[in-house]
Structure formats: structure tokens, C-alpha cells
Here is the input.
Amino acid sequence: MQAILMEGSGGPEVLTCGTVEMPVTVNSEFLVKVVAAGVNPIDAKTRAGRGVTPAIDSYPVVIGNDFSGVVVSTPYEGHPIKVGDEVYGMTGFPRYGGSYAEYVAVSSLSIARKPKALSHVEAAGVPLAALTAWGMVVEVAKAHEGQRILIHAGAGGVGHFAVQFARFFGAYVIATGSTRNLGWLKELGANETVDYTSENFDEVIDTVDVVIDLVGNVYDDTGTRSLSVVRHGGLVINAPTGSWPTFLDDAAEAGLRATSYKVAPDGTNLAVISRLLESGDVRVFVDQVFEMDAAADAHRSLETGHTRGKIVLKVSDY
Here is the structure.
């Protein structure tokens, strides 16, 4: 099969199109023909030698997490998901082969039926970002009415889902973003927006209960500055790997609770998210679509840091 191969750590140029053996399924795994694959910051970090690079034991390797596609084979004949059904999910890379490929083998616990309201390209932009946002906002922060939540990078892949989930569950949402995204963030449900290009959020907002930190200290000490706007005993949740190494100690010193968050390829939660996508209560925004053999260009675009929503690779026709 055709796949995007990462020849080693480095810049986008280490991603090349090549041929590899088809994945072999065992036990409770599905074989899925990939129609589209999502591109995520963790993909770029891993390509650059960070992220989950320590778990990669040989090169070249096929990277990628998100996929949307069609079932080619099922774990057993009586499985409720049948050959030909449209599904989406996460591969669990690097324990499983990545999704920048024509086929993936994936655990039955990691997939859900693709929402009928979404195209494969749209669906491929959902799993990792939406599951990350769901875990941070719903499972950890327990978003609820009367709660004030600050979401940094609200217009990004994870951020635009986090804004919608927090608002859906009744929280008062404050989102940071660039000038061009402020109106869009309001459309997604943000009660307040802060233009990080011209305002300091810590000077213009009132105290919040929770910070969903999707930036850390890689830009303008966003993480550290967030501590000053959280009520005593409030919660800081940080997602980007390595973006703020001292955040647990810094938060404790400020009298706050804090935790990192690592996403799991959870098909059960994804099925719940699917219902919100089907109903229109939540939507995914795909900013750019690249052909699979232009994966390097997709990474270059992602690393500009100006993506609204998601970037997706079109892998095959269906």
C-alpha cells in the first residue's frame, strides 16, 4: 500500500511517499481503508524528534493518528460494525501503524461509526482533537453552568472543540485568539474573546475557575501568566507536551490545582461526540485539505501556528 514514510527525525522534508506492506490484523482489530487522515500538532512534534519519538523503535515509520474510512475486515463475522461501514477514530500511533496510509489496522475499542452528517474529510479532523477537548473540558474540568473557563488558542484544532463543549455544558467561556478569529469564536459559543495580538488576557478578564491551556509557555509566557487569573483552588489543565515543564510546581505554589492531559483513542467517547456532531450542537471546521503526497506541505502549514480548526490529508477516493 501507499503511505507517508517518516525516514527519521527532522523537518517536513523527512516525510516521503512510499510503499509498505499492508497491515495484518489480529484478535479484535479492524482493517480500515483510509479515505482521509487528520494532521495534528503531535504529528509534527514527533516528526521533529519530540512528542512520542522515544516509542518509535525503527525507521522508516508511518505516522498519524486520525482517520476516517471504510471497513475492509472485521474481528469476527457477527460484529455489529460490518464490512463496508463507514467509521472513524484514532490509530493509537506509535503502538499501531499510523494513519497517513491507505489502510490501517485498529483496535475495535478505538473506532466509532462516522457521523452521516460529515464527509470523510470532515470526520478525519475530529477524533484526536475532539477527544482531547472532551477529556479536558468534560471529564477533568467537569464543565457546568456557573463555571468560568478560559480557553487559550480557542480557534485551533483542540480549542474550537473545547469552546463548543464548554458552552454546551453551560460554562461561561472566555477564549483567546487572533484578530481574524474573534468573530468566529463568538459563533462557536465563546461569551468573551481576547485578541492575544493586541491585549494581555491577564489584564482584561475577571477571575476564572478553570484554564484550558493549549499554549503553555511557548508563547509570551501564556501558561505562567494564566495563574494570576484563576481563583484560589481553581484548576489549570495543560495539554501540549513540553510546553510548560514546571507548571505543576508553579500552580501548587500559587494555590491552584493542576494536571496535564493525555488523550486516549476512546471509541465510546467518540460515539458520544458523534451524536453532538449529528445534532449540529458541535461542528468541526477543516481549514485546509492536502493530498496525501503533500504531507510535508501540510506539516509546514500546521507549524505556522495560524490554522483555524483542522488540517486534513485526502488519502483516497470513496
Q: What stands out?
A: The chain has ten helices and 16 strands. The longest strand covers residues 29-39. The CA atoms of residues 28 and 76 lie 8 Å apart.
